[in-house]
Amino acid sequence: LTLPAVVEELLSEMAAAVRDGAPIPDEHLLSLKFVFGSSAVQALDLVDRRSVTLISSPSGRRVYQVLGSSGRTYTCLASCHYCSCPAFAFSVLRKGDSLLCKHLLAVYLSQITRTCQQLSVSDKQLTDILSVEKTQEA
Amino acid sequence: MAETLRRVLNLGIAAGPGKNTAEAEPPLLLLGGPGSGKTALLFAAALEAAGEGRGPVLFLTRRPLQSLPRRTGPALEPLRLQKIRFQYPPSTRELLRFLCSAHEARGPAPSLLLLDGLEEYLVEDPGSQEAAYLAALLLDTAVHFSHRVGPGRGCGLIVALQTQEEGGDSGNALQLALLQRYFPAQCWLQPDAAGPGQCCLRASLEPGGLGPREEWWVIFQPDGEMTVTRWPTQAVDTSSHKGSSSGGQP
C-alpha cells in the first residue's frame, strides 16, 4: 500500500521546508487540500491538538495512536499503511476512493512537524496495544 | 523478497555470490491453485536463506509439513534444516497473537519470515479490515525483525496464498486485491502442459516495479523431485497470457 509519487514528493517538500525552520508554505497546504480534500483540514487539526502519539517499547517496535475527534483512539502501524478507523476500512480499503484516512495523514504530518507525543511502554504493553486493535471494531 | 525466490528458481545458475539486497526487497506474495507447489517453493526459499550465513528462518504454517519436499533446489543439509524454525499457529487469533508479540521473543531475529496457507487464516475472518490488519501486521513484524537484524541485511517476507478456481466469488477477488496492495511483488504459479505423471507449472515473478517480469518452468516428477528451467526468452509478451498478470485474475 504505497502513496503515489506526487504525494510522497509533497510530503518530503513539506518536511524540507519545516527542517529549515520555516512554517509550511501555504502552497503546500493548498496542494494537501487538493489531494486529500476535507481530510487534510481534519488531519491538520489533529496535529494542532497534538493528538498523535508515537508509542515505543524497549524492543524497538513502534506504533502510532491517534486520538480522534470523537474521543476514540485509533491505532496506526508505523511500517505500512494501516489504521483501525472505519473510514480506512471503507474508503481506503474497500472503495479505494481515498489514499489515506485523516489519522494516517495526521501521523505523517506530525512526523514532518515533529509534534508527535512520545510514550514508552514495556514490550508486553506494546503486545497488548497491538492485540487490542483486533477487537476494537468488534 | 523476490531475490530469494529468484535465486531458488535460478538454482544458483545466474545467482553468483548472494546479494544482500533483502532490506530493499518488497514483501512477496506467492499465488497459485491447490497443489501448485507453493509449499515446495517456500521450503526451497527457506533452505536457500538458511545457507546464507545469516539469522534463522521462521516458517509459519497452520499444519506441520506432511513430508519434506524432495530435492527442492538447495541440499537438505542438517545445518540448514536446523536454522529453519517452524511455528504452527492453529487459528487466526493465535497467528495474530504471535505477530503482535513477535518483539517479545529473545534470541537472534529471523532473516526470513515465511507464511504458508494465508487463505486458511482468512476463511475464519473474512472482513476486509481483518485481512488488511493481518497483512499489515505481517509487514510490521518483518520490518521489526529487519530493525533487529541491523542495517544492510533485513528480514524478508514471503506469504503463500491459495487462489480460487476460475469464477471465485467477488469476496475473494476483493480480498486478493486488498492483499496485492500490501504485497507489490507477486509470483504466480499456474498449471501448464505436463508429461505423464509430471506436474508442470509456470512461475511468473513480478517484482513490483523493481524490474521486468521473469518466468520459469517448474516441473515436479512423480517422485516429487522438483526441476526448474528458465523460460527461454527474456522479453516476455505480457499480452499473450494475461491470466498470469496481477490484473487478470478472477
Automatic annotation (TrEMBL), chain A:
InterPro entries (UniProt xref): Znf_SWIM (IPR007527)
PROSITE patterns cross-referenced by the UniProt entry: ZF_SWIM
Keyword Transit peptide: no
Gene Ontology cellular-component annotations: Shu complex
One GO BP annotation of this record: protein stabilization
MF-aspect GO terms: zinc ion binding
Keyword vocabulary terms for this entry: Metal-binding, Zinc, Zinc-finger
Domain SWIM-type span(s) in chain numbering: 74-112
Identification of the protein by name: Zinc finger SWIM-type containing 7
Organism listed in the record: Bos mutus grunniens (Wild yak)
Organism classification: Eukaryota, Metazoa, Chordata, Craniata, Vertebrata
From TrEMBL, chain B:
UniProt-listed InterPro entries: P-loop_NTPase (IPR027417)
The organism's place on the tree of life at top rank: Eukaryota
GO molecular function: single-stranded DNA binding
Gene Ontology BP terms: double-strand break repair via homologous recombination
Gene3D superfamilies documented for this protein: P-loop containing nucleotide triphosphate hydrolases
Any single GO CC term annotated in Swiss-Prot or TrEMBL for this entry: Shu complex
PANTHER family xref list: ATPASE SWSAP1 (PTHR28653:SF1), PTHR28653
Protein name (Swiss-Prot/TrEMBL): SWIM-type zinc finger 7 associated protein 1
Organism: Bos mutus grunniens (Wild yak)
Gene name in the database record: SWSAP1
